[in-house]
Design brief:
mainly beta
């Protein structure tokens, strides 16, 4: 494995400070009031409990000189011109410190905690750490013999001098670090963490990180720091020149997850949010922004950086190019869901491109959201479903021996949702059906017209699509085209529908300037329509005086067409679709003794099957792509309704229905209307 030896004078100065520090040794620690000038520990297998502040001057606040399996509990602050707490050499191991209080150090090389060549210790710190010299909050210097330490820190770190950081790991392995708190540094060459020749460490940080000095990357993995795991939950901001967010130098096989935004605003040749030099096989997972407001790239990989993988989750966006000088062994893997669209400039470089949900076009990284395509079969089913419900109820009237006349009006509102991560759906559809019974026909006939407005939202945040639709449907219904067929009646219908659709997409774009804007909205209008022909068989059974049971079986053939349309760089081809919708429904109706109220329940199973047209062809900037959507779903429904008779010729009704599909789409529909005969 190739490595590059790098020397930094600032790092050497920081490392050299502890070895030349002159110290005076305080008295032995003892349980009780904290000694004002600090204390030392040379006893093993003992517990100390101290209360009160320590101001140790040029000596460490607490120094463990020769101690094993010792526990130190301190409630109080430490102020020192030396180390706050010092774990000294290999004779100190397997100790635990529990400190509730703030630590402030003032000298150069005066660290809040200094763990030198010491192993298996546990540091639990609740409180802030601040350094005003060139110093570190917690410094673990293993010198290849100090390893496996655990740090749990809840509190903030602040530094006002240069060459400072919340953490420094040098020549140490297998440490476990957890921090909850913010980090703010104002001096040059400062940040959250620095490592050098440190492997297999696990670090978790929750809080915001801000560096203001020049040459101050928030996270710097220095030479030969391999196989480390770092998780950051919070935002990273750097404002100094040549200050990146994440800088990996000559270090391999690290796994880093950033759940937050990275914003750099300084200028210079190394001010990228993410920067690799001579580093291989690292994995970066990003679910926030990587915005370079100073003009650098958002991601920059040097020529000798190979086999690195970037997993870009939903929420990731970019200002600045995605530059890869290391070749096609480096991968951009988009895991943003089906609704995400992006048009990302790679500065003329080439990556291996992957999208976990849909096609991606190489060159620059381009992809179109396809959640609406995937949901098209469900949309056709949903468009027909409330009308089928109304016509089923009309058929029941004829089966009951009635011969309705006049008109009816039915209104409905339905809400779809799917909460699964990365495939969310939130849809609303409301409409009205007006029907009229034709007079003087041998076979009962009704004409109807339906109006519907719907909006379907897919995804969330910057990975989002919306389709808005206005639709009209008209047709002819024959509620009893054949009677006494296997004990039931058969109805038939022909419906024709036309719609105007507006498809909107949010597109990630890293070439919109340095204002911080990283996405744009595009839209395309298109017309669509369908013809539906179908029928339903209905029979009654177990009929008693006030209770009626029935079963219906129906099927429709839907032939649909979507026009082509253009939105930005996307051109979506026209599409023909043939769908079969089938259903079986059990119903029970109860009529009260006065015959003024009907109460009904309905339980059903439906299916939509796309016989053809499940594949949608489209182009992205002239490059062909296609996506095959869902083509087969089952729906399981349960309903409850009531009808109130105002008079012999007029009644009001309300029905509710809940549905769950095999694609995890839930639907709730409320249906209400009135029937009048004249």
């Amino acid at each position: 494995m190739k490595k590059t030896i790098l020397k930094f004078s600032s790092v050497l100065a920081l490392l050299g400070a502890p070895f030349f520090s002159s110290q005076t040794f305080a008295a032995e620690c003892a349980t009780g009031t904290s000694p004002a000038d600090g204390c030392t520990i040379n006893v093993s297998n003992i517990t100390y409990t101290l209360t009160g502040d320590i101001n140790s001057g040029a000596s460490p606040g607490i120094e463990l000189q020769t101690a094993t399996n010792t526990e130190i509990n301190l409630t109080g602050n430490i102020t020192a011109a030396d180390y706050g707490v010092y774990f000294r050499l290999t004779d100190v191991s397997s100790n635990t410190t529990n400190i509730i209080g703030n630590i402030s150090t003032t000298g150069n090389g005066s660290y809040g905690y200094f763990v030198w060549k010491s192993s298996d210790n546990t540091i639990n710190h609740t409180g802030n750490i601040s350094t005003t010299g060139r110093a570190v909050g917690i410094y673990i210097a293993g010198d290849n013999v100090g390893h496996r330490n655990t740090v749990n820190w809840t509190g903030n770190y602040t530094s006002t001098n240069s060459t400072a950081s919340a953490y420094f790991l040098w020549d140490t392995t297998d440490n476990n670090i957890t921090m909850t708190g913010d980090v703010t540094t104002t001096g040059a060459v400062s940040g959250l963490i620095r490592t050098n020749n440190s492997d297999n460490n696990t670090m978790s940080f929750t809080g915001n990180i801000r560096t203001e000095g020049a040459g101050s990357p928030a996270i710097l993995l220095g030479t030969d720091s391999d196989n480390n795991t770092i998780n950051v939950t919070g935002n990273i901001t750097t404002t100094g020149n040549n200050s990146s967010g994440l800088d990996i130098i000559a270090s391999d096989s690290n796994n880093i997850t950033i759940n937050g935004n990275i914003t750099t605003s300084g200028t210079g040749v190394s001010g990228e949010p993410i920067r690799f030099t001579n580093s291989d096989s690292n994995t970066i997972t990003l679910s926030g922004t990587a915005h370079s407001l100073g003009g650098d790239q958002a991601i920059s990989l040097g020529t000798n950086s190979q086999s690195n993988t970037f997993i870009l989750k939903r929420g990731a966006s970019f200002v600045g190019g995605l530059e890869n000088n290391g070749g096609t062994t480096n991968t951009l893997r988009f895991d943003m869901g089906k609704a995400s669209s992006y048009n990302l400039d790679t500065d003329g470089t080439t990556w291996t491109l992957e999208d976990m949900s849909k096609p991606i076009v190489s060159g620059s990284a381009k992809s179109m959201g396809v959640a609406d395509i995937d949901n098209q079969a469900h949309i056709l089913y949903r468009r027909m479903d409330p009308v089928n419900d109304v016509l089923s109820e009309r058929q029941r009237l004829y089966k009951a021996g009635q011969r309705p006349t006049g008109y009816y009006i039915d209104s409905y509102y339905g809400h779809d949702k799917r909460d699964d991560d990365y495939s969310e759906i939130s849809g609303n559809a409301g409409g009205m059906t007006v029907g009229y019974v034709l007079e003087n026909t041998n076979t009962p006939m009704e004409v109807l017209v339906n109006f519907e407005v719907s909006q379907d939202n897919y995804g969330a945040g910057l990975a989002k699509q919306t389709t808005e639709t206005n639709s009209v449907m008209a047709g002819l219904f024959l509620p009893a085209i054949a009677e006494d067929v296997l004990g039931g009646n058969i109805s038939a219908k022909v419906l024709i529908s036309g719609s105007d659709n507006d498809a909107k997409r949010t597109v990630l774009n890293n070439n919109l300037g340095l204002s911080g804007k990283a996405s744009e909205k595009i839209s395309g209008d298109y017309n669509s329509g369908f013809i539906s022909v179908g029928g339903e068989w209905l029979t009654e059974f177990l009929k008693v005086e006030r209770v009626r049971h029935d079963i219906s079986i129906g099927a429709d053939l839907v032939q649909a067409y979507n026009e082509d349309y253009t939105a930005g760089e996307y051109k979506v081809d026209s599409r023909d679709m043939t769908q079969i919708q089938s259903r079986i429904l059990y119903g029970m109706t109860y009529k009260n003794a006065k015959k003024t109220v009907d109460v009904n329940t309905r339980f059903g199973v439906s299916n939509q099957y796309m016989v053809s047209g499940d594949k949608q062809d489209y182009t992205i900037n002239g490059t062909s792509a296609s996506y095959t959507g869902d083509d087969n779903s089952f729906y399981y429904t349960a309903g409850l309704g009531a009808k109130y008779y105002l008079a012999d010729n007029t009644n009001l009704y309300v029905d509710t229905k809940y549905g769950q599909s095999s694609d995890d789409i839930q639907n709730l529909t409320v249906d209400f209307g009135f029937i009048s005969r004249f």
